[in-house]
Amino acid sequence: MNDSIITLDRHILSEQRRYGGRGDFSAILSQIIFAAKVVSAQVAHAGLVEDILGRTGHTNVQGEEVQKLDVYANKVFINALNYIGKVCVMASEEEPEMIAIPKEHPKGDYVIMFDPLDGSSNIDVNVSIGTIFGIYKRVSDGEDGVLDDCLQPGRKLFGAGYIIYSSSVNLVYTTGNGVNGFSLDPSVGEFVLSHPNIQIPPRGKIYSTNEGNYAYWKKGTREYIEYLKSDRNKIKAPYSSRYIGSLVADFHRNLLKGGIFLYPEDTKDPKKTTGKLRLLYEANPLAFVVEQAGGYASTGYERILDIKPTKLHQRVPLIIGSKEDVLEYEEFAKRNI
Ligand code: AHG
Ligand code: MN
Ligand code: MN
Q: Residues 188-226: pLDDT tens digits?
């Protein structure tokens, strides 16, 4: 492999040398990379198995119970991170409570939040899915991490990123010094730098939202979407609608091309009156990435990264993407409080 190809491991090392920091964070990222490779292999395989065997019930060729991919991915990430001695506590979308580090393993200074498989309702129709992660430094002392370590505002994130399992497997991450994207080269099993220094366009031409919730949206949200679809002032043609239904896939496209993703609060379901997406392991990590790429993330009323979490699985409205677009949405939302 010639030296113009920068692997993710090499990039992490060069960031560590350039910006300081011990090898702990690099060790965590290396384990996340390993878990991502394991999950990506299973995602590809399970998509096949589901398609072929899905019609005869959910057992694989050995007659085993096919584990749901988000449960499987959850275990892979926990097992990859809980023994390395760098982590004091974790939280996952798939675990109702905090994930303690087993007593036989040493504890470390970091806290990991993750959504092991985002968009998992799409796996059986072979649509892109992903993993989202956020990494904090602990705030408590003592051995085991505690709830306060998990309930830190997103602006305290030390690092964050996501993996998208699609036609190619991409990993995008930031440690607060810009955003870089890597593509998995299956021939060597390495993530190689493919999207250096990602910057999201200040304004896009794409909006991503589930318009099926239109009737349940607040007035400001409805007016904003109507505004995007109108011919507005002549210099800005109507936006294009793109909605995959996997947050990571919708976010990744808008990060690269520009645009706005909206999952606002709606009254369709009591659980969604404060939005559907979870603050700790969906909104915060992506908000950290998008701001590092020059974008912005808001609830419509306040900056996502400033929210002081109160519960592990609390939900927030998420408006995220090109800064001018998100700020424009805020004008509509705030006019109609
Ligand atoms: P998860 O699979 O981790 O529960 O996340 C699903 C989320 C997110 O990926 C996506 O943006 C959103 O659900 C789609 O929700 P709707 O189907 O209500 O549009
Ligand atoms: Mn999710
Ligand atoms: Mn999930």
A: 889 999 999 999 999 999 999 999 999 999 999 999 999
**Closest-approaching ligand to the CA atom of 92:** 3
Nearest residue (by CA) to ligand 1, atom 17, is 245
The CATH number of domain 206-334, selected from 3.40.50.300, 3.30.420.40, 3.40.190.80, 3.40.1640.10: 3.40.190.80
Task: Decide: 181 and 195 in contact? Cβ < 8 Å.
Answer: yes
Residue 292 beta carbon below 6 angstroms from any ligand 1 atom: no
User: Whole-prediction pTM value?
Assistant: 0.93
Sign of the CA dihedral running 239, 241, 242, 248: positive
Residues 146-171 have pLDDT tens digits of 999 999 999 999 999 999 999 899 99
Which CATH architecture fits 8-195? 2-Layer Sandwich (3.30)
Which of 154, 199, 207, 164 has the alpha carbon at shortest distance from 184? 164
Query: What single letter denotes the amino acid at residue 251?
Result: F
Tell me the domain boundaries of the chain. 8-195, 206-334
